[in-house]
Specification:
This protein is mostly helical. It contains 10 helices and no strands. It is globular. The termini are far apart.
């Protein structure tokens, strides 16, 4: 009997330790995820454009497919890579992030270029696919998951850097919890955004009060402009985030001029407006990062179009 009581006491002790570990994982995941808030907002802003042009009944399935692809990006590819890099090749994290940042700069600059010169540049295959809706959907989903991979890589790296020094399994569990939580938050928000017009239509047709019906009609009329705004914000976000990654990467690799110059200008602007110093500093920093990101992206366009694109097409039999 005394042996059984001792065993139960040991089990209770193990359960307490396990519960404490779960609490630690959740707390660390929430704290580390907060540092990635900027990239998370960018991810949410980029995604809604991928469902434009499809029937309403296909919007949620498309978002679901992109979300599932994002989960696989984070858990099956990026989480193991992040842990291995952290343990054995931490020096490689900055260059890899810069490569992803350069891609984001190119992707954003390409969209700006195509807007300004719509007949002169058609590199983005997913944006210009013609044919049956199923083929178009496949291309859109593939493009969204490709872009998500870069944003997810940045998110996972930021989260990893925010986790306190701990053992391998604690880091793995924290990264996994944060990855799933962020993906649910991002694509849940996107689902609400893209279905807002259906909700507005429901209110307009079924609400009992005139004010509620008017609200529904207002939502329906506003959503095309909201979606257009999100497309613009998403493109700007890719350029800004890509530029920020490049600037910080160069700083970590020893070239401090871009980082220090932007920091100095941002602090000077913030000093001039002390009541809004934090906001002004953020705006100036983001704006200058975006300018550098756009310039880099424009420089990469001919390289991607005339060098990387043809090489890629020859390797993968003409796939853009």
């Amino acid at each position: 009997m005394s042996g059984l009581i001792a065993l139960l006491d040991d089990v209770a002790g193990i359960a307490k330790v396990a519960a404490a570990s779960v609490d630690d994982v959740a707390a660390q995941a929430a704290k580390a995820s907060a540092k990635a808030a900027g990239a998370v907002i960018d991810d949410a802003a980029v995604t809604p454009k991928y469902v434009q042009g499809f029937e309403a009944k296909r919007e949620l399935p498309i978002i679901g497919r992109i979300a599932w692809g994002s989960i696989k990006n984070k858990l099956l590819i990026l989480l193991p890579i992040a842990l291995l890099l952290s343990a054995f090749a931490s020096w490689a994290i900055a260059p890899l992030l810069m490569l992803g940042g350069a891609y984001l700069c190119f992707e954003g600059a390409e969209k700006v270029w195509h807007t300004l010169f719509p007949h002169d540049h058609t590199w983005d295959h997913a944006e210009h696919v013609e044919g049956d809706p199923a083929h178009l959907e496949e291309s859109k989903v593939a493009g969204a998951i490709k872009t998500d991979f870069i944003l997810s890589a940045e998110i996972m790296t930021i989260i990893l850097s925010g986790i306190p020094n701990s053992n391998f399994w604690m880091e793995a569990a924290t990264l996994a919890v944060a990855a799933v939580g962020i993906t649910v938050a991002v694509y849940g928000s996107v689902a609400l955004i893209v279905k807002a017009d259906d909700f507005g239509l429901y209110l307009a047709n079924n609400a009992r009060l005139g004010a509620t019906q008017a609200l529904g009609r207002g939502i329906v009329k506003a959503m095309p402009y909201v979606m257009k705004l999100l497309t613009i914000v998403g493109t700007a976000a890719m350029i800004w985030v890509g530029g920020s990654i490049i600037v910080h990467g160069l700083h970590e690799l020893g070239w401090h001029l871009p980082y220090e110059t932007i920091k100095h200008w941002a602090e000077a602007a913030a000093y001039a407006v002390p009541n809004y110093a934090g906001f002004v500093k953020w705006v100036v920093t983001a704006g200058l990062d975006g300018v550098l990101g756009l310039a880099l992206g424009v420089l990469i366009i001919p390289l991607a179009t005339w060098v990387i694109g043809p090489i890629w097409g020859s390797i993968f039999k003409g796939k853009a």
